Amino acid sequence: MTSLHRFSHPLAFNILELHYGLASKGFSILFSWIPSHPGISGNELADNLAKSTTISLNSPVPVNDVKKYINSILHSK
């Protein structure tokens, strides 16, 4: 857990802290970065669909609400 303190952005630290908490409770979480692949029709379609969801969100869920929800799950196990 001390290695998490090397991240300077608070959101990155919070995400990794929650990941650590969930992993210690037996959850398996995998983060993947999938780059776009211009010129490949299936990937371009997936990229456009992913971008459209971020644009069309009218009321994003606040980070604190997500943290509270995940913490409630952690404490219930």
Number of helices: 3
Characterize the overall form: elongated
Distance between the termini: 20 Å
Order of helices and strands: HHH
The total tally of domains equals 1
The structural class is mainly alpha
Overall average pLDDT: 74
Instruction: Outline the biggest β-sheet.
Output: none
In the predicted model, the low-confidence regions spanning at least 5 consecutive residues are none
Q: Return Rg in Å.
A: 16 Å
GO molecular function: nucleic acid binding
InterPro entries: RNaseH-like_sf, RNaseH_sf
In short:
GO terms for molecular function: nucleic acid binding. The protein has helices at 10-24, 41-56, 63-76. The protein is mainly α and 77 residues long.
Task: Describe the protein.
With 77 residues, the chain is mainly α. It has one domain (10-75). It has three helices and no strands. It has helices at residues 10-24, 41-56, 63-76. α1 runs parallel beside α3. The longest helix is centred in the middle third of the chain and has 16 residues, at 41-56. The model has no long low-confidence stretch (mean pLDDT 74). GO terms for molecular function: nucleic acid binding.
